[in-house]
Specification:
The complex is a heterodimer of chains A (606) and B (87).
Chain A: H1 10-33, H2 38-59, H3 65-70, H4 77-88, H5 91-104, H6 106-133, H7 138-146, H8 149-182, H9 186-201, H10 205-234, H11 241-244, H12 246-258, H13 268-272, E1 278-279, H14 292-306, H15 310-313, H16 322-340, H17 343-355, H18 368-372, H19 375-382, E2 386-388, E3 402-405, H20 408-416, H21 421-459, H22 465-489, H23 494-518, H24 524-546, H25 561-578, H26 584-593
Antiparallel strand pairs in A: 1-3, 2-3
Helix pairs in contact in A: 1-2, 1-10, 2-9, 2-10, 2-21, 4-10, 4-16, 5-6, 5-17, 5-20, 5-21, 6-14, 6-16, 6-23, 7-8, 8-9, 8-21, 8-22, 8-23, 8-24, 9-21, 9-22, 10-21, 12-17, 14-23, 17-20, 20-21, 21-22, 23-24, 23-25, 24-25
Chain B: H1 3-26, H2 33-37, H3 48-78
Helix pairs in contact in B: 1-3
Classes of the chains: A mainly alpha (606), B mainly alpha (87).
């Protein structure tokens, strides 16, 4: 069926895969009609897709260093774009973002702008140059460009702090979905999620992660778009929701004032009875309700964080050329755009389904007893993601008496809107794909930095290939387990941890990376100061604000990267100028990086 | 000025243009979020600021990156720095 090389056959292979997945969805739909239980459908969806990823991971096993670290640098432009999109869109994008927009409106839409705008920085400031450099990992670039183990070690430190914060959130997300879909306790589900993550990456490193991520992108984008289009058409809101929901947005504003949003407030005693983590609608859907700086500072942090997160950057090390690295960033953003532009539409449709009394699905204004007897309400109430209570005792459900978890907006909306259960199963599989693909990229980024930069470059430079790859795999398992253990503690919500990760990365890595390419005068001392002081000041600010500090300039615990990166920039420039300029060889190296043609700075095997 | 310096000059120029456009649509317009929301310009019927946050800016970034990549390729060609093996 597939003659010739694997790479040449990619469109055919993934075309067949997509077709197969669609057939699987149809089969499940038929099975549902034939009476298969909802629980069984959920299990089938999650188990089937995870097994496929594991199979791809197994088939991509490798014993070569450059295949393990950079997928042999032969991933075609568009496919790398898809893999990056999956790598990028995490449980936070898939499960939590629409929920954030649903509850917080305009303030959270800064995330949409920030998480896409960052790619302009990636494309113009960094990706093509780092590809030309020919490094395996981000600390590999820092270590070689600035020279010396100190700089390399600092980069490993920042990378580990940022990526580890991020990965716990992703393992948390896989755990949540696995526990709902497979009906097992969260504490166990976290490790089930971890096992599936490791199956994809352990044997084949970057090569395996690349090809599973492409497969995961296909599942997650189908799982996100299908319900959005379906619900929109079912409500008669528009054939193509993205261009046709203006009336619905206006209708929500009308309902909000009708139901007394912002005027009817819950008392503290009432709110104390609401289960932890659930929230009601308190912000208007489409009003611009924050100060400009609050919006802009969050967007800025997410953009600079995007350009400093190593698991994204290392995807562009895998393309065949500098030119394709550049174009690949464009494709990545295009594939991300497909999902991000749909998130506000999903939030709109979800809110309208629940609120509009003219719709059969609307629950606001119905009697409390009726709502409590709904099947989907009982399911999600049991999962601790939904709650109603008759605070004013009038027997009907008011807008301020309905509470939902952020995750439920994506996971439960198909059920609320009355779609067949097969769609809910599909959404669970999509959420699993999103969280797994990001977790894989992150665990691999940390393990690669530790095995390549710490073990091979600093501790044992004479290690043989086989030994290097064994160390890399052992570290992968250890980091995965550490992440799962912390995820099981549930310290911070998914969205909060992810935002922190961006701030950490921005504090420590943004300026050392950018100036490494764009400022020849930057030297090792400056870079070390920039990374350490940036990370330290950012962390200190976070701790200070978390422990009741007032903060300044309106910088909150979600935007502490602004403080960190400013300190990083100033200290890097000052220390660089106070110490000796980099030697001629380093300057030549920077010149070399700025020209796309010719050999990479680091050799093919290093 | 050497060939390499000229190439870098042009590359830097392109960077500044790209970052300027990026700045306008990621930061600049949101200083005027409240004013724009009241505007009579309503793409597809959505309030203007709402539209920019959920589609407008995002779409502009996608186009901007492809435009940037195309321009950079032209600059590289002009100075003979294009890579030989392309996909």
């Amino acid at each position: 069926m597939f003659k010739g090389k694997f790479i040449d056959n990619l469109p055919k292979i993934y075309g067949t895969y997509t077709g197969g997945f669609l057939v699987f969805i149809i089969l499940m739909a038929i099975a549902e009609q034939a009476g298969m239980s909802a629980k069984l459908i959920g299990i089938f969806f999650v188990a089937f897709t995870v097994l496929i990823y594991a199979l791809i991971g197994y088939l991509s096993r490798t014993l070569q260093v450059d295949a393990y670290y950079v997928a042999g640098r032969q991933v075609p432009t568009v496919f790398n774009g898809m893999a990056t999109a999956a790598d990028w869109m995490s449980g936070a994008s898939f499960v939590a973002m629409a929920g954030g927009i649903y509850f917080k409106g305009y303030g959270y839409m800064a995330l949409l702008v920030g998480w896409t705008g960052g790619y302009v920085l990636v494309a113009s400031l960094l990706a093509p140059y780092l590809r030309k450099f020919g490094c395996y990992t981000v600390p590999d670039f820092i270590g070689t460009r600035y020279g010396g183990n100190a700089a390399r070690l600092c980069a490993v430190l920042v990378l580990t702090v940022a990526s580890f914060t991020y990965v716990t959130a992703q393992i948390n997300a896989t755990g949540t979905i696995a526990s709902v879909a497979l009906d097992i306790p969260f504490g166990i589900a976290v490790y089930v999620g971890l096992a599936s993550i490791l199956m994809c990456s352990m044997l084949g490193g970057m090569r395996a992660v690349t090809w599973t991520q492409v497969a995961q992108y296909i599942v997650l984008i189908i799982a996100y778009l299908l319900p959005v289009f379906w619900i929109s058409n079912k409500l008669g809101a528009g054939v193509f929701p993205h261009f046709m929901l203006a009336d619905e947005v206006a209708r929500i504003a009308e309902l909000e004032s009708q139901f007394g949003l912002g005027t009817v407030k819950n008392s503290a005693a009432d709110l104390a009875t609401v289960p932890k983590g659930l929230a009601g609608i308190t912000k208007a859907h489409s009003d611009v309700n924050t100060t400009p700086w609050k919006f802009i500072s969050l967007a800025v942090c997410m953009m600079a964080g995007t350009a400093s997160l190593p698991h994204v950057m290392m995807r562009y090390f895998t393309t065949p050329s500098v030119k394709s690295a550049r174009r690949s960033v464009g494709w990545s953003l295009f594939f991300i755009f497909l999902l991000y532009s749909s998130a506000p539409m999903l939030a709109t449709l979800s809110k309208l389904s629940l609120m509009d009394p003219n719709l059969a699905t609307g629950i606001i204004g119905k009697s409390i007893a009726d709502v409590q007897s709904l099947d989907w309400y009982q399911n999600w109430n049991q999962a601790n993601l939904m709650f109603v209570s008759d605070f004013n005792g009038n027997g009907t459900l008011e807008l301020n008496e309905f509470f939902m978890g952020g995750k439920a907006v994506v996971l439960a909306t198909p059920e609320i809107a009355g779609l067949p259960y097969v769609i809910s199963g599909l959404v669970a599989a999509g959420g699993m794909a999103a969280a797994m693909s990001t977790a894989d990229g992150l665990v691999l980024a940390i393990a690669n930095a530790l095995s390549h930069d710490l073990y091979y470059k600093i501790i044992d430079p004479k290690a043989e290939t086989a030994k290097r790859l064994i160390v890399a795999r052992v570290l992968l398992v250890i980091i995965g387990f550490a992440g799962a253990t912390i995820a099981a503690l549930e310290i911070q919500g998914i969205l909060g941890s992810v935002i922190w990760a961006f701030d950490f990365a921005m504090s420590g890595l943004f300026f050392p990376l950018v100036l490494g390419v764009w400022w020849k005068r930057a030297n090792a001392q400056g870079a070390v100061a920039g990374m350490l002081l940036g990370l330290a000041s950012g962390t200190a600010y976070l701790v200070w604000v978390r422990t009741g500090g007032a903060g300044f300039w309106g910088v909150t615990q979600l935007t502490f990267g602004i403080v960190g990166s400013l300190v990083s920039l100033v200290s890097m420039v000052v220390v660089s100028l106070m110490t000796k300029a980099p030697d001629a060889a380093t300057q030549r190296m920077v010149d070399e990086v700025r020209v796309p043609s010719g050999k990479t700075v680091l050799g093919k095997q290093h | 000025m050497s060939k390499q310096q000229q190439h870098w000059e042009k590359t830097r120029g392109l960077l500044f243009v790209t970052l300027a456009i990026w700045f306008v649509f990621s930061i600049g317009i949101f200083f005027f979020g409240a004013e724009m929301q009241e505007s009579n310009i309503r793409p597809f019927g959505y309030p203007l600021t709402y539209w920019f946050t959920c589609q407008g800016s995002l779409g502009i970034f996608v186009i901007l990156i492809f435009w940037f990549a195309g321009r950079q390729e032209k600059i590289d060609e002009e100075f003979g720095y294009s890579e030989k093996e392309d996909d």
